[in-house]
Write a structure and sequence with these properties.
single chain; 378 residues; alpha+beta; Immunoglobulin-like; 5-stranded antiparallel beta sheet; 28% helix
Length: 378
């Protein structure tokens, strides 16, 4: 069979440069109206039983070149199970070497979470009697901003993910969180939904997700730099979500992401905001300690540099919500590579581990409920 490469599907991204024998040269396309690129997702046909070498030529100019070091690409035959494959990065080129067992195989930067799967997630959740569903507004491409409300407690908890659409592990995390919160027999879920009202936006960037972007929406806007001043023209996704937050208030918030370079799970906080105080920071620290105690996949020794007093980037959601509402807010980062403290040679960091980490985060939230309640009442 003739070798062929395609990406004209939900979330796809690759550009074919050349096919010469068993070698395929490729490039990743930029996000629309943006210089960002790093996400790839494509299908290879005609290579069953044939050793092929696929070279992604433009990796040196990607958004996060350090993300390619010690990185291994993912391959799937059924788009459900994604295994790591032989990959190496040298001279600005990522080379993937594989002998597919089938004439049809998919390759991706991380296990994709397509908009079709997102719609299945929303449909199943919205059908649950404990869930109140609303569309908060429309994206620039006309997609719905899906919002789910669960629970009736006085604490206002916001969980939102995938501001950067290529960080698909964030929506796998959301799937795990929703599975647990909607398990009627789970005692943790019962306690949490008695104490709190959960406001959940599983995908903040539907347009970028469908277009196969790494970091931006339909017009090249990085949504996590819009929270200080969102507009209907550039960032309607942030505008409609922040408006709803203004209506409900926010006591606790988690913004779920993925990090290209750091092979670990970690939290980023709000240390540099103008109104920072020890009590607010103390609850954040309690959550981090609880999560580290609960999950072997979480650690606190590695992460981003902490902002100095008064130097927080207020255009980012975690800082904006901590300042705007006095919320205990945080960004959760998961790896594209693996957790090097607990490596998995077959799957690396994976959808299943993302889902399990979500469950651990809910356990940690339960552990700090008394502190959150005390802050709200005090």
């Amino acid at each position: 069979m003739t070798l062929s490469v395609s990406s004209a599907f939900d979330g796809g991204n690759i550009r074919l440069v050349a096919i010469e024998g068993d070698r395929i040269d490729l490039e990743i396309a930029n996000d629309h109206q943006s210089d960002f690129y790093q996400w790839f997702y494509f299908r290879l046909t005609g290579a069953g039983g044939r050793p092929v070498e696929m070279r992604i030529l433009n990796c040196a100019g990607a958004a996060y070149p350090l993300g390619w070091e010690n990185y291994r690409a993912l391959m799937s035959y059924d788009r459900e199970e994604w295994e790591r494959v032989d990959s190496d990065f040298a001279d600005g080129i990522l080379t993937i070497r594989v002998t597919p067992a089938s004439n049809s195989a998919w390759f991706a930067y991380f296990a994709p979470y397509t908009m079709e799967r997102h719609h299945d997630l929303i449909a199943e959740a919205a059908a649950h009697p404990a869930v109140h569903y609303r569309s908060l507004g429309k994206t620039l491409d006309g997609q719905d901003m899906d919002y789910l409300r669960i629970g009736e407690g006085p604490l206002q908890v916001w969980l939102y993910a995938r501001q950067h659409p290529g960080e698909s592990m964030a929506e796998w995390w959301m799937e795990g969180a929703l599975e647990r919160l909607l398990d009627d027999g789970d005692p943790v879920a019962r306690r949490l939904t008695e104490a709190a009202t959960f406001h959940i936006v599983p995908n903040m960037n539907p347009d970028g997700s469908k277009r196969g972007h790494l970091r931006t929406n339909a017009v090249g806007t990085n949504l996590n730099r819009e929270w200080h001043e969102p507009t209907a023209e550039r960032s309607p996704e942030v505008l409609c979500v922040r408006n709803e937050m203004d209506r409900t208030g926010v006591d606790f918030a988690m913004d779920v992401h993925g990090d290209e370079a750091i092979p670990a799970n970690f939290l980023a906080g709000f240390e540099g905001i103008p109104s920072w105080n020890k009590a607010q920071q103390g609850v954040f620290d309690s959550f981090a300690k609880a999560l580290e105690r609960i999950s072997p996949d979480f650690q606190t020794s590695r992460g981003y540099e902490v902002a100095r007093p008064g130097q927080a980037n207020m255009s980012m959601s975690t800082s904006q919500l901590a300042e705007r509402f006095g919320a205990v807010s945080m960004t959760l980062e998961m790896p594209f590579k693996d957790n090097e403290d607990l490596p998995d040679p077959v799957y690396g960091w994976s959808p299943q581990r993302s889902r399990l980490l979500a469950r651990s985060c809910l356990d940690a939230l339960l552990a700090i409920l008394p502190e959150l309640k005390a802050r709200k009442q005090g």
